[in-house]
Specification:
Largest sheet of chain A: none
Order of helices and strands of chain A: HHHHH
CATH class of chain A: Mainly Alpha
Structural class of chain A: mainly alpha
Distance between the termini of chain A: 54 Å
Helix content of chain A: 55-70%
Strand content of chain A: under 5%
Largest interface: A-B, 48 and 48 residues
Number of strands of chain A: 0
Oligomer: homodimer
Number of helices of chain A: 5
Shape of chain A: flat
CATH topology of chain A: Multidrug-efflux Transporter Regulator, Chain: A, Domain 2
DNA sequence: TCTTGACATGGAGTCCACTCCAGGTGATAC
DNA sequence: GTATCACCTGGAGTGGACTCCATGTCAAGA
């Protein structure tokens, strides 16, 4: 697949795809004889993996570390597993934070649903619903 | 409360607190006669609100818009409610994305738990567990 | 009175994750 | 053969969200 096709398929700009490869977020993509990228199945799986990690909020540094470990072969299986476990902890913590935010947001919206509510936070001291 | 106390209480640096106020993420904080900030209950509630919105991934622009609407008074109740509803949608979408990522992460970790697994993605074509 | 320390301000600098651009190459269409 | 087009590269630029810094003020303690 060309970079344009991959870009459409995963909704990631060609510039970003090249950037990811340059900084090691993707292992080198195969090229045709004129040096043009020709993404294969493995490349696509890495792209999906990176999209997934990005959506999970994993920093670029941790993502490239994972790729680097992978490319060093089986000796790094343990380290890769550790990295994923650590990122899972971080992800779950972020999700818990977001859930708390969502709960608060829902409370606040509920206040706006009541007519005449002063809808918090109060301008200064006292007035407005307790939070 | 002084900026240092608030900083400790909410784990937000004094620089960030001043920055938030400067760009309108917090309504002006009361000052003592020498111009030093003296955070009151309302200021603290705004800080909590901003921490909450930040944890929810709300951009600074949307947060300052909310504050600006609030400061314009009751005429903007509807607009504020709309803004919160919109941000709730975005938040729920992000959480759904993260849940998908978590599911995938768990699958991947499961592969690492099995001894001798080739642990994806494959280096090139074929080998390695299907995803 | 002098020093210290917490605070103030405006503005510059940093970091992350892209995003854009100038200049160049190779394959295809006319 | 030349125009067009998609692609290439290295490097500069951008936007968001801080973070740091030089310089200055004020109140309190030695």
């Amino acid at each position: 697949m060309t970079i344009a096709e991959v870009s459409r398929k995963y909704d990631i700009s060609p510039d970003t795809l090249r950037y990811y490869e340059k900084i090691g977020l993707l292992p080198p993509v195969p090229r045709n004889k004129s040096g043009v990228r020709d993404y294969d199945a493995a490349s696509c799986q890495w792209i999906e993996m990176m999209k997934c990690m990005r959506a999970a909020g994993v920093q670029i540094e941790a993502r490239s570390e994972y790729v680097a470990l992978y490319r060093q072969g089986d000796a790094t299986l343990g380290a890769r597993r550790e990295l994923l476990l650590e990122q899972r902890e971080l992800l779950m913590a972020r999700m818990a934070d977001m859930q708390r935010s969502l709960d608060r947001l829902n409370e606040k919206i509920a206040l706006y649903e009541r007519p005449n509510s002063a809808a918090c936070p109060p301008e200064r001291e006292g007035a407005g619903p307790a939070e």
